[in-house]
Design brief:
single chain; about 280 residues; two-stranded antiparallel sheet; mainly alpha; 6 strands; Cytochrome Bc1 Complex, Chain D, domain 2
């Protein structure tokens, strides 16, 4: 009996490991799915980042260095590592993407903004964005960067649908233009769009003429240099770059993970055959 129990113990152990893995992975995915749609009063627009897409990462790095680096550092990353990972020659990176000429190519990606002065200008010092894609979510960032709109009541004349009363100016306004809020559709109780039962048209205003969703859609008071589709592509590349910065090794990690899983599968086959050989004479 003791020998038979030992044979069964192998499979019980494997079953326990499988259950633990499932109980660990499934809740994490559920939490991630819930946080992916936490964009204030609206759902986040979903995107699929790809840190192996080098052209996208290169364009995102260009946008970040030109429009974001003046205020938001990437102090946990290095110029040289970024240039090498993105397949950008170091001399070109230094010439076109590293604007602090006093910093060496191997230095951390900090900026010259004084934190105390920045706090006076913005009310709070602009945060470092190395880990923002991990702390927030790529979907959140993508939606946030596309929903700035004019708001004369705010100090910089802009607000944001995702981050209400944001203290950040719309630094990409020359690309996007300056959107203005317009009444938009309202979500019905069943999850669809609220429509008039007689006309079938979207219900935008209440009986007193007040907009039910005053910032449900955008109109452009001033046009930018890019079309809305082109601007969305720029933001995708920017978010893709920030996703890379949050974990530069993730592409390599995923590639190694495939080999690790293949090894485990192969090891399981040999473990099964060895276990069967050990216990073949036990009845």
């Amino acid at each position: 009996t003791r020998v038979t129990d030992g044979g069964m113990g192998f499979w019980k152990s494997m079953g326990v490991l499988l259950v633990v893995a499932l109980l660990t992975i499934v809740p994490l995915k559920a939490v991630g799915a819930e946080s992916a749609h936490n964009c204030g009063t609206m759902d986040c627009d979903e995107i699929q980042t790809d840190v192996t897409n080098l052209p996208s990462l290169q364009r995102g790095a260009q946008t970040y260095m030109n429009y974001c680096m003046g205020c938001h550092s990437l102090q946990y990353g290095r110029y040289q590592r970024t240039a090498n990972d993105l397949n950008i020659p170091e001399d070109l990176f230094e010439q076109y993407l590293k604007f602090d000429q006093s910093a060496k190519i191997g230095a951390l990606m900090t900026n010259a903004m004084d934190e105390a002065e920045a706090k006076k200008w913005f009310g709070a010092a602009p945060p470092d964005l190395t880990l923002v894609a991990r702390a927030r979510n790529p979907d959140w960032l993508y939606t946030y960067l596309r929903t700035f709109h004019a708001d004369p009541s705010r100090p910089y004349g802009v607000n944001n649908r995702v981050f209400k009363d944001v203290g950040m100016p719309h630094v990409l306004a020359e690309l996007q233009g300056m959107p203005e809020c317009a009444p938009g559709p309202v979500q019905a109780a069943n999850g669809g769009i609220l429509r008039d039962p007689l006309t079938g048209e979207d219900v935008l205003f209440d009986e007193k003429g007040n907009a039910l969703n005053p910032c449900g859609s955008f109109t452009y008071a001033t046009e930018g240099s890019l079309t809305p589709e082109e601007y969305d592509a720029v933001i995708y590349d920017l978010v893709n770059f920030l996703e890379y910065m949050g974990e530069p090794v993730q592409a390599k990690r995923k590639r190694i993970g495939v080999y690790v899983l293949a090894f485990i599968a192969l090891f399981f086959v040999f473990a099964y055959l060895l276990n069967r050989e050990y216990w073949k004479d036990v009845h």
